[in-house]
Fold:
Amino acid sequence: MSDLDILSRVQATIASRKGAEPGSSYVASLYAKGTDSICKKVAEEAAESIMAAKDGDAHHLVKEVADLWFHSMILLSQYGVSVADVAAEFERREGVSGIVEKASRSKE
Structure:
């Protein structure tokens, strides 16, 4: 099993909630509220991850980053983007200097 297997399973669950009744699941309720609400949750979880890191609490940081990834996956799903798409971007960047990669984005 690869590390992406769990992310793919979570992604499938998230996708299955897309058309569900908002009262039936947390994910369905976020979809019903729309992109702005999903983005707010991503921002909230990012801030909580930063606070956990600043506190130096590795265990809490792991939990907050899991929440951040989860909500980011909901946002990706909102736009039809998959875990595989993000993994492919990581593969594209692998072995490329961060400075070089960032400079290449300004040409797009």
